[in-house]
């Protein structure tokens, strides 16, 4: 009897070890595709109503509907990002060389409008004069500016390129998720029912609503900022206003991203001697472009998750650190889902 009990325990431990090894092995095999799979799942959940509409239009031909969704994702998101990454990589060396030449040759005389800028004009003009006349200060500026600029530009290009690759893989995976979506949904429903019992349907509704709310919030805010920025660029007479608006849309997905675009446009206007339009661009960017992030995004996201701003910020930054460029989408969604589920659990526990 004792030997039989020992054998049973050994059998259970052996089964547990086999399961752990199997799960660990599957994780190692799938780990390179985990980020792309998460992104594909997020995209498919967010656009599932559109896929169902296409499926009806194609008379339940799943391959055609899935292929149309995948190609649309490629043309609307991946291709523009690929062009941005290609142009960025192509121009990093030229920009760095031009910046190096400017620093080594010394800056020209400061423009007249610089001293007239409010608050910082006199200090900026004095420092410009110091750099223009002092070789030691110029060398110090070169050491502080050039190497960090090169590293930052290369890192940005590499991250964007990796993001394009991850998105391309996600588009490929999304085709199969769309096509087999009904079967996958049934499997998830059964698995959740086994795990959490009668609350499975409510939890899945929370996850679906949260994922869609966060995605709509991120993309809706980016689109609104891109449109407002384009209007401002056109009014101020900034060249390539539409292209800069597209860049604003893309950079809106990262914290303080739009500032790099409209701030650069304002600096260009000041450098061209258009101090009035430069001030206008600063005011337009600060009060209109950047304020969209504080108005539109909370309205869109709060309908489903009420995610606090600090968690949204951590989601974006932590997502980028953990998953690269595509973490801009994955990070906030993971935190929003966890936050919504915790709120639901606390509310249900309080009622009991």
From TrEMBL:
The keyword Transmembrane applies. Keywords: Cell membrane, Membrane, Transmembrane, Transmembrane helix, Transport. This is Putative inner membrane protein. InterPro entries: AI-2E-like (IPR002549). The chain crosses the membrane at residues 12-30, 36-54, 66-86, 151-178, 214-235, 241-262, 269-289, 309-342. Its main location: membrane. It is found in: Cell membrane. Signal peptide: none annotated. Belongs to the autoinducer-2 exporter (AI-2E) (TC 2.A.86) family. The keyword Transmembrane helix applies. It is a multi-pass membrane protein. Pfam families: AI-2E_transport. One of its GO terms (cellular component) is plasma membrane.
């Amino acid at each position: 009897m004792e030997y039989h009990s020992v054998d049973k325990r050994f059998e259970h431990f052996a089964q547990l070890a086999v399961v752990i090894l199997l799960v660990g092995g599957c994780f190692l095999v799938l780990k390179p595709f985990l980020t792309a799979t998460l992104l594909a799942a997020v995209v498919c959940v967010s656009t599932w109503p559109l896929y169902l509409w296409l499926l009806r239009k194609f008379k339940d031909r799943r391959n055609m509907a899935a292929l149309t969704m995948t190609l649309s994702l490629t043309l609307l998101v991946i291709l523009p990002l690929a062009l941005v990454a290609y142009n960025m990589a192509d121009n990093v060396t030229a920009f760095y060389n031009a910046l190096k030449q400017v620093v080594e040759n010394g800056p020209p005389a400061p423009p007249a409008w610089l001293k007239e800028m409010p608050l910082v004009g006199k200090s900026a003009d004095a420092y410009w004069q110091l750099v223009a006349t002092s070789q030691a200060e110029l060398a110090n500026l070169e050491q502080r500016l050039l190497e960090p600029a090169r590293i930052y530009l290369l890192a940005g290009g590499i991250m964007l390129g990796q993001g394009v690759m991850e998105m391309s893989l996600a588009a490929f995976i999304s085709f199969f998720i769309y096509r087999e979506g009904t079967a996958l949904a049934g499997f998830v429903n059964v698995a959740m029912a086994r795990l959490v019992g009668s609350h499975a349907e409510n939890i899945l509704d929370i996850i679906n609503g949260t994922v869609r709310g966060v995605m709509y919030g991120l993309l809706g805010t980016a689109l609104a900022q891109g449109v407002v920025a384009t209007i401002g660029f056109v009014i101020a007479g900034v060249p390539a206003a539409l292209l800069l608006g597209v860049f604003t849309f893309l950079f809106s997905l990262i914290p303080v991203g739009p500032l790099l675009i409209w701030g650069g446009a304002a600096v260009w206007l000041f450098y061209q001697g258009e101090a009035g339009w430069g001030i206008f661009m600063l005011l337009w960017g600060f009060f209109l472009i950047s304020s969209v992030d504080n108005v539109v995004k909370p309205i869109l996201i709060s309908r489903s998750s009420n995610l606090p701003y600090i968690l949204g910020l951590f989601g974006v930054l932590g997502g980028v650190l953990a998953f690269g460029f595509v973490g801009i989408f994955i990070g906030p969604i993971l935190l929003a889902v966890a936050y919504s589920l915790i709120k639901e659990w606390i509310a249900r526990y309080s009622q009991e």
